[in-house]
């Protein structure tokens, strides 16, 4: 006799979405204070930069601002994933592997600077160039080493004609710490907006190019709106070129608010613009959508099934984007997405890297962009002349004319 067991029902879609969101929710990882008093991390004098202290700026060409707690107990200063007791300023170079106590560690060479010295150094570098500054704000799951690696890649890849500043907030650098990262990001809103205001109000800064990745968009957009509101003149902001890579930002909130503040008519008339890189292949943003319940700006997911059905009926891809807003351009990298999560195409996919470089350089379009049925949305399509094996070469190359 064959016993027949009842078929188990398929798990509901909401349950599957919840399971997908678990890694981002951080339910398996909690942050604790640690076994070392935080005051012990910063007790060494190297954690408190003195005015006039010598820094080898040739060896440390890039600038950083951080709210991370430093660890100055060992010869190599590290920036931890804890919240710091204050904002610190410094210089850094691209991280690399080093032997420490017989072990290979990936470390970022850095030195702190007193705030006045740091601003003076930034001014000197800005004056020597074109008055332009590039500010990079990272996203979820980053350490100081990983985000410094990305900042150094941006500097190398774009050949930017001005100083590169990395703003590093205390992301945990862990898959299961999305909720912690989100909490620390919101905790850092005041720190970042005050720094951005100070940068924007420097008379020697002619243009600020802002690049944010992932969760960093939720620091950048409100901070720019704050700078605009508090600027001495309604049209005085020099923040003109804003690039949002894989923005983990509520799409409907963005649509509702952006035209009233960051892309207000007066700002767009003075040449402000936003370029957003989005991908339907972005697994990290799919998980964020499942966690938050609503689509993210960086993922062209069709939340409205009737809109999806209409696109299907017209023979168009089922991809839904933020509405058309003057000053906004959307570049869809779905078809050339790279990596296990598809969350960093602007640093991983050759065609996306090339497009990103041109946007940094102030260009408005590229011939490789394919128009869509929406005037503000463009698609990057696979190019047989640009196979994936060239991604690393192109995305990590030195710009034309650089020999180092």
UniProtKB/TrEMBL annotation:
Q: Name one Pfam family in it.
A: DUF900
Name used for this protein in its record: Alpha/beta hydrolase
What are the entry keywords? Signal
Q: Which domain of life is it from?
A: Bacteria
Signal peptide positions are 1-30
The source organism is Sphingopyxis terrae subsp. ummariensis
């Amino acid at each position: 006799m064959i016993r027949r067991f009842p078929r188990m029902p398929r798990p509901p879609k909401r349950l599957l979405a919840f399971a997908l969101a678990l890694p981002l929710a951080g339910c398996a990882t909690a942050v604790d204070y640690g076994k070392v008093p935080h005051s012990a991390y910063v007790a060494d004098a190297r954690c408190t930069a003195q005015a006039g202290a010598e820094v080898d700026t040739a060896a440390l060409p890039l600038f950083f601002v951080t709210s991370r707690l430093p660890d100055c107990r060992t010869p190599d200063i590290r920036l931890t994933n804890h919240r710091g007791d204050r904002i610190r300023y410094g210089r850094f170079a691209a991280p690399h592997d080093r032997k420490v106590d017989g072990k290979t560690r990936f470390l970022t060479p850095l030195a702190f600077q007193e705030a006045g010295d740091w601003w003076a150094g930034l001014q000197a570098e800005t004056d020597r160039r074109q008055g332009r500054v590039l500010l990079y704000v990272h996203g979820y799951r980053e350490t100081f080493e990983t985000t410094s690696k990305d900042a150094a890649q941006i500097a190398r890849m774009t050949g930017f004609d001005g100083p590169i500043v990395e703003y590093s907030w205390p992301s945990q650098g862990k898959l299961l710490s999305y909720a912690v990262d989100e909490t620390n990001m919101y905790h850092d809103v005041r720190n970042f907006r005050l720094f951005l205001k100070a940068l924007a109000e420097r008379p020697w800064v002619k243009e600020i190019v802002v690049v944010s990745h992932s969760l960093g968009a939720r620091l950048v957009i409100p901070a720019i709106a704050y700078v605009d509101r508090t600027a001495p003149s309604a049209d005085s902001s020099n923040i003109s070129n804003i690039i949002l890579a894989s923005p983990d930002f509520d799409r409907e909130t963005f649509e509702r608010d952006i035209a009233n503040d960051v892309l207000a008519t007066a700002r767009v008339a003075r040449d402000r613009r936003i370029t957003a890189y989005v991908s339907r292949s972005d697994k990290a943003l799919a998980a964020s959508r499942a966690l938050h319940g609503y689509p993210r700006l960086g993922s062209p997911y069709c939340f409205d099934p009737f809109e999806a059905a209409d696109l299907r009926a017209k023979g168009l891809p089922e991809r839904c984007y933020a509405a058309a807003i003057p000053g906004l351009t959307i570049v869809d990298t779905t078809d050339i997405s790279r990596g296990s999560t598809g969350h960093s195409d602007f640093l991983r996919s050759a065609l996306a890297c090339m497009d990103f470089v041109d946007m940094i350089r102030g260009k408005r379009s590229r011939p490789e962009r394919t128009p869509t049925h929406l005037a503000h949305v463009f698609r990057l399509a696979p190019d047989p002349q640009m196979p994936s094996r060239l991604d690393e070469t192109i995305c990590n190359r030195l710009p034309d004319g650089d020999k180092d």
